[in-house]
Amino acid sequence: MNDLASTYANLGRYNEAEQLQPQALNTRRRVLGEEHPSTLQSMNNLASTYSDLGRYYEAEQLYVQTLNVRKQVLGDEHPDTLISMNNLALTYSCLNRWDEAEELYQKAIGIAERTLGNQHPNTQIVHRNHELMRARRPTEL
C-alpha cells in the first residue's frame, strides 16, 4: 500500500496518495512501531503529500514529529534527520515563517557540509532550497 501511495505521489496524483498514506502509516505504526525507519519514512511521505496539496500546517505537524523521532533514534547528524530538517525548513518557508526556515537551513547546511561534504547531492539540495527561500523572502525595510 505504501508503494502504491508513493507511486501516486510521484505521478502527481496527490489526492489518491493522500487517501492511502494514512492507512499505510497506521499499519506501520502498529506492526513496526513509531521509531522504525519505515514508519518514519511513511510519516515523511504523508507530510510531503500534505505539502504538495498546500496543506502546510498538517505537513508541519508531521515533519516536526518525524524530525523529533529521527533525532532521538538516529541522532542529529544522520542523513535521514538531515532530510527531515530540510523538509521542515521548506515548509516553514511555504508558511512565510522566514526566521524559523533560515535557522533550520543554517543548521542543516552545517551538518550536511560536515558529515556529507559540499558535493554530496543532499548537501546541494539543502543549499538550493535555502537559496530559493532567500530569493522568495521579502526584504525588510
From TrEMBL:
Domain of life: Eukaryota
InterPro entries noted in UniProt: NLR-like, TPR-like_helical_dom_sf, TPR_rpt
Protein name listed in UniProt: Kinesin light chain
Natural source organism: Rhizoctonia solani
